[in-house]
Amino acid sequence: MNGDMTRISRESYRKATVEALTVREAVDFLEREAKVRTLREKLEKFSKGRDLSKLLVAGLLEHHPDMKKDSVERRVRGWLKPEPGHSIKKQDAIEVAFILELDVDEADEFVTLVSEERLHWRNPDEIVYIFALQNGMSYQTAVKLAGQMEGILSQVQETRELEEDSFTPMIRSQLSQLSTVEELQDYLLHAVGRLGRCHNNAYQMFLDMMDALENPEIDEVEADMFGEERLTVRDIVREYFYEDNVLYAKSNARKTQKGKAGEEEWCILTKIQESIASSWPDEIAISRMKSRKMDVSRKILILLFLATDEEWKETGEDVFEDMYRRMNDMLGLCGFSTLDPRVPFDWLIIYCMCVTDILDMDDRMHRIFNEMFGMDPKAGGKA
Q1: Going by C-beta distance under 8 Å and a sequence separation of 6 or more, which residues neighbour residue 13?
Q2: Under a CB-based contact definition with an 8 Å cutoff, are residues 99 and 60 in contact?
Q3: 357: buried, middle or exposed (CB in 10 Å: 19+, 13-18, 0-12)?
Q4: Which one, of 95, 205, 102, 174, lies nearest residue 140 by Cα?
Q5: Concatenated DSSP letters for 29-92?
Q6: Cα separation of 105 and 322, whole Å?
């Protein structure tokens, strides 16, 4: 299962799955011992032995001749600091892939490592750059080409109707056969209705899992005893997305930063807490995802998978291994990176999945989020 991991990743994975840490010990490990992969390490993996600082500075100055050298050097120094917490946006990671002279497969691996999301072959913001990487073009040529195709790509509109030929593998297969600008332009003219910034597989799975929570299947006996229970989105956020822990802590941290709350130490999120709580789903995000005004996030898919998974009931032994494999299959199918034990949120998920009795997983999830983030004193949920 972990044969392709580095030594450090294997050790972090072992901590989550073998050592039987208590919840308190698990939080201590994340905060004090976990070797979170830095942006510098991610860049070095693809540097091919070259001087990263010189390479990145020269590349950025070539791409942006209007930028001051001091400003670019300061930016690159921030990227290369040997501590976690530094990141770059996905579009910037694509630009860096050109500077590193990566082919399209290497660029896909690099962008996934940096952003946790694979190159999106349907996305009008990325498709021209993918074509350029695929055909060995420079970043400047890609920018110019994107400008030429802007009129076509501006017609892309997100739709809630999912058609079979609009899924990424089909479009990737078609796009990978194009080698000239004329072929690209002709393809985009005919494919514009099938493009979109949101992941279709992720959207379909998101809808299915949300429906399973909002409208659970119950038999007649359960219906007579408990009634036909229906969960609201707010119920789901509170119970399965740990609103009273994560979102409560984020809210208090924002108030502290604005000076509207006391300066209690627990109001300031640590780097690990920030990493885990970043882009945490709330009611507004769920509404925007449903209406396709926002792409379905990797975190919400993982949390929904744990909340709705039923296949473990039929697997018997090796429940963790089976669930781990199926979650990774889902993430890969949806265009996201698989679970990485050197990412704090992923480590926490792996730890919570690895229980003696799978029925204890929900309790472990509640306890670790409560231990890490505390709980809203007004909440009436689990502590």
Answers
A1: 2, 5, 341, 350
A2: yes
A3: exposed
A4: 95
A5: IIIII--PPPHHHHHHTTSTTS-HHHHHHHHHHHH-TTS-HHHHHHHHHHHT-SSTT----HHH
A6: 28
What values do phi and psi take at 154, rounded to 5?
A: -70, -10
Place of tokens 């770059």: 88
Pairwise CA distance, residues 29 & 8, whole Å:
14
- The residue ranking higher by pLDDT, 228 or 254, is 254
Q: Quick check: 333 pLDDT over 70?
A: yes
Proportion of the chain in helix, strand, coil states, percent, rounded to 5: 65, 0, 35
Identity of the residue numbered 317: E
Instruction: Name residues whose C-beta falls within 8 Å of residue 209's C-beta, 6 or more positions apart in sequence.
Output: 301, 304, 305, 307, 308
Q: Residues 264-304: pLDDT tens digits? A: 444 578 999 999 999 999 999 999 999 999 999 999 999 99
Please state the pTM of the whole predicted model: 0.89
Tokens of 194: 């099938």
Question: What is the full DSSP assignment across 209-246?
Answer: HHHHHHS----HHHHHHH------HHHHHHHHS-IIII
Three-class SS state of 176: coil
Percent residues over pLDDT 70 in the chain: 89
Nearby residues of 191 by Cβ (< 8 Å), 6 or more positions away? 171, 174
Query: 261: pLDDT confidence band, cut at 50, 70 and 90?
Result: very low
Find out whether 269 and 224 touch, Cβ atoms under 8 Å: no
Which pLDDT does position 262 carry in this prediction? 47
pLDDT band at residue 356 using 50, 70 and 90 as cut-offs: confident
Torsion of CA 252, 258, 260, 261, to 10 degrees: 40
